[in-house]
Amino acid sequence: MKTECQNLILDSRFSIPDIRRVSSFVRRVSIIFVFCLLGFSGCNNANEKTEMLKEIEQLTNQNKELTGRAEKAESQNKQLKGQVQVLTTLPENVRAESLYNLQQIRIGRYTDFFDKDHDGKKETLIVYIQPSDDQGDRIKASGSVEVELWDLNKTDGHAMLGQWKVEPEELKKNWYATLITINYRLTFDITDIVEDFDKPLTVKIKFTDYLSGKTFEDQKVIKP
């Protein structure tokens, strides 16, 4: 009986089960569970009983986990079928770019250096990025952003002071809307990057739109 329980554990280690396999697994667990209970009457060794109880508990937990996976997979499958049905009914002249048409990326006017901890020294660069469609409306375009900070007055080959890249997953968390502005709001630590704020510095951005594959660039001079 103990061997049958161990074999069932090994048989149950498969990836992303479908509904039928989970149902079969449930039936097998039920049968083995009954046999295990009946086998207790012939078990005189307390250690064997304890080990068998652990195996039954493990099988029960695996069954619950697999059932949960199956239910989730079934739900996702229904959702995907619904999405496919909607997409197949769209007219042929409707393309992905028509869902939103990113036309421009601009650096917002509030982009600047800030003293966040009020210690008298500016240690934070906040960059506001405003994506707009062909109607001039702000849109939450999905993509990645490369941000660079430059001191264009330097001629020693070290004009670029800092460089950062923000991936789509992080970017979408920084969508910022108020009564007066809607944009992405990105924050960067410049504690060891900028030493002199008494001269103009330049912020450059390159936005890669993941829907169209297009890239957009803009730059802004931050004056003292």
Summary, kept brief:
This protein has helices at 2-11, 19-39, 46-88, 168-171; strands at residues 102-107, 112-114, 124-133, 143-150, 160-166, 175-177, 182-189, 201-209, 215-222.
Walk me through what this model shows:
The protein has helices at 2-11, 19-39, 46-88, 168-171, and strands at 102-107, 112-114, 124-133, 143-150, 160-166, 175-177, 182-189, 201-209, 215-222. The protein is α+β, with helices and mostly antiparallel strands. The chain has two domains: 2-88; 100-222, Immunoglobulin-like (Sandwich). Helix 1 runs antiparallel to helix 2 and helix 2 packs antiparallel against helix 3. The model is unreliable at 1-17 (pLDDT under 50).
Keywords:
224 residues, alpha+beta, Immunoglobulin-like, 2 domains, five-stranded antiparallel beta sheet, 4 helices, disordered N terminus
Number of strands: 9
Q: How far do the termini sit from each other?
A: 80 Å
- How much of the sequence is in beta strands? 25-35%
Number of domains: 2
Give the overall shape, derived from the CA principal axes. Answer: flat
What structural class do helix, strand and pairing data support? alpha+beta
Low-confidence stretches: 1-17
Could you tell me the CATH topology label of the largest domain.
Answer: Immunoglobulin-like
CATH architecture designation of the largest domain: Sandwich
Helix content: 25-40%
Q: What average pLDDT do the residues reach?
A: 80
Q: How is the main sheet built?
A: 5 strands, antiparallel
Q: Helix and strand succession?
A: HHHEEEEEHEEEE
Rg over CA atoms, rounded to whole Å, is: 30 Å
CATH C-level label of the largest domain? Mainly Beta
Total helical elements: 4
